[in-house]
Each structure stands twice: as structure tokens, then as C-alpha cells.
Amino acid sequence: QTLLTTWEKLHVCMPRYANFMAKCNRKDLKRPHVFMNEQAQAALGEFYLCCALRLRADEVDAAGEDSAKLLDLAGQVAEQDVEPFFQDCRDFVADYNEALHRRLDDTTIWREVEDGLFWHHSFEVAAAEAYRDLQ
Question: What does pTM read for this prediction?
């Protein structure tokens, strides 16, 4: 539930994240002490500020137009809110089973025929042994 609530707040910032990714250059990683170019840094800052506005609007208002405070807030949001959220998303999908998903998707044709058949075939796919034990 928390993932979806946070996603509802942050989804409007994702085009800024895509912009950051588009500005990243693999060659930057090979230069000493540089892990992203200035355009990528600026785009990443915009992304985190967008997230700050969505997650901590009062703190953004309190920072006003103070660049140092806004930059600090962007860093806090990155470390305390956004990156943990991204990790929670990765954890959530870590055990995703594409083959099972495809097999379950194939059972949807039975819904057009009859709901009971849809559920029967879905349970056979998702939990065959437990379903057999219940029959």
C-alpha cells in the first residue's frame, strides 16, 4: 500500500528522471572523480526537487528561494525518501515470475466463457497442488 501511495505522489516527477537518464553518458564514468556530467547533475537535482515538492511541500516552502537550503533538501529527499522508495520497488518485484505471469495471462480467455472456469484454470496455474488438495 505504501508503494502505491508514494507512487501516486512521485509519478509526475518521473519524466524528470527520464530526462536525467537521457543526459547520462557512460564516458563520464571513466573520467577520474566524475560520475556524471553537469547536465545530468542538473537534471537529477530537478528530479529530486520535484520529489521534495511532492513529498515535503512545507519544507520546500520553508526553504523559499535559498539555493543552498533547496539543494540540501533535495539531498535529504534523495537519501531518506526516494532511494529507499526505489529499493522498496526493486524488492517488491524481485521475485517476479514472468513464466507464471504468462501462464496466468493465458487463463484470462476463460473469463469470457465463464468466471468459474477462469478461476479454476487460474488456481491450477498458480497453486496446482493446494488446489488439487481442496477438490
Answer: 0.75
